[in-house]
Design a protein that fits this description.
Blueprint lengths: L3 E7 L7 H9 L7 E5 L8 H9 L5 E4 L2 H4 L3 H14 L3 E4 L13 H38 L15 H10 L4 H8 L3 H15 L2
Parallel strand pairs: 1-2, 1-3, 3-4
Helix pairs in contact: 4-5, 6-7, 7-8
């Protein structure tokens, strides 16, 4: 008897897996055979996916909702697909893409078409991930150009900072003494002093 399994992945604990779970339940997959990870698909070092890999045997069938639920790394998706289908003898069914159903077209042409579709979809999935990162980076750069500051706002300087800074700059006191007088670590004092100096020349 064929053993059927389902794999579900959401990127974060806050994301909802209901859509994928409903699809698996509609296939009457036993609950114990549904594996779910709540983490990024950047690699396959996911605890539930690793457990699933140990369970999958020859002639088993693995269902996933869409190719990006399997993973988001183009090269690794292709490698996992090869391991599962060629080495383990497992069939894979991608519910959102009927062409990616290795139970059908086991002849040379069917296998060829399945491999081509997989490569295209995997590339599109990773390319979209790259585009998202690029858009984020461009958005951050544009915001910085407008003067938007990221990270925690700096604490206001203590009232005695300017005179202490001047004494330190003139060599009247050491950096350690200046930092202690301002109530901050030496590294923080030097960092804030550099900021203060830069602001003074603007």
């Amino acid at each position: 008897m064929q053993r059927i399994y389902g794999y579900i992945r959401v990127s974060t604990k806050e994301q909802n897996e209901d859509r994928q779970l409903i699809a698996m339940q509609a296939l009457s997959i036993p609950e114990k055979n549904i594996f779910m990870d709540k983490q990024s698909g950047k690699d396959f070092l996911r605890p539930q996916y690793q457990k699933l890999g140990q369970k999958l045997k020859k002639d088993g069938v693995l269902y996933i909702k869409s190719i990006d639920r399997l993973g988001r790394n183009y090269a690794e998706i292709l490698e996992q697909w090869r391991i599962l289908t060629k080495e383990k003898g497992v069939d894979i069914v991608v519910l959102d893409m009927p062409l990616l159903d290795t139970r059908r077209g086991k002849d040379l042409m069917g296998t060829f078409l399945s491999d081509i579709v997989l490569q295209i979809l995997s590339f599109v999935s990773e390319n979209e991930r790259f585009n998202i990162r690029q858009r984020q980076a461009e958005g951050i750069a544009a915001a910085k150009a407008r003067g938007v500051r990221f990270g925690r706002p700096s604490q206001p300087l203590p009232e005695n900072f300017p005179p202490i800074y001047e004494k330190w700059r003139s060599g009247a006191i050491t950096g350690t003494a200046a930092a202690k007088a301002c109530g901050m670590p030496l590294s923080t004092f030097r960092y804030r002093a550099a900021q203060f100096e830069q602001a003074s020349f603007i």
